[in-house]
Amino acid sequence: GAGVSQTPSNKVTEKGKYVELRCDPISGHTALYWYRQSLGQGPEFLIYFQGTGAADDSGLPNDRFFAVRPEGSVSTLKIQRTERGDSAVYLCASSPGMDGNTIYFGEGSWLTVV
Amino acid sequence: QKEVEQNSGPLSVPEGAIASLNCTYSDRGSQSFFWYRQYSGKSPELIMSIYSNGDKEDGRFTAQLNKASQYVSLLIRDSQPSDSATYLCAVDRGSTLGRLYFGRGTQLTVWP
Q1: Separation between Cα atoms, residue B38 and residue B72, nearest integer Å
Q2: What is the distance between the alpha carbons of residues B83 and A38, in angstroms, rounded to a whole number?
Q3: Inter-residue contact A103 to B98 (CB < 8 Å)
Q4: β partners of residue B92
Q5: How far is CA B81 from CA A35, A79, A108, B7, B18, in A?
Q6: Under an 8 A CB cutoff, do B98 and A98 touch?
Q7: Each residue of A7-36: pLDDT tens digit?
Q8: What are phi and psi of B53, to 5 degrees?
Q9: Measured between beta carbons, which residues in chain A are less than 8 angstroms from residue B100?
Q10: Residues B15, B110: contact at Cβ < 8 Å?
Q11: pLDDT of A101
């Protein structure tokens, strides 16, 4: 596709459940990022992949959060034992990688934990 | 102190006026600076990037950077109702490629 694609666009889940959010980056982009945006706040960095490896996962808030990118393209953000405080928009972004630091965001996955 | 601070807003200007959005950052080693526009319910969209001191103009938008004062601003000339959105200032500290630190955003309303 032309842009960063994220699914689902909306997800409502019960507290304690497991959730997966998927991101398909712009074709050819080697760098992929997950950010989280809470209401009234700017996006906060979670994790950065260069290719298949997580080059920086220091933004993940705790060990309930995990992300993978097994083939260097699509990525999945996994949240275990969801809590109400996890409710936010989860934004995926990609960039060409070494050529500059401009990142392009997808439309986000709105997660609501009830 | 937060990494990136923006004037709290909301900011309301009449159509045709100049809108001025301000941002300060705490890490003196920061290297790259960005302004994103975010419409309600949509994802952030990059509108300006600036890397060196001075002004950078792109159409009706001008970004200004003063590294000594750790200050970035965005001016929108001839504001239009379609400019009504939240404007996010973002800073790249140079630690991780593409890792940006965002401010909370300033909500701008341009009224006809």
Answers
A1: 18
A2: 22
A3: yes
A4: B32, B100
A5: 29, 39, 25, 20, 12
A6: no
A7: 999 999 999 999 999 999 999 889 999 999
A8: -55, 145
A9: 43, 45, 103
A10: yes
A11: 67
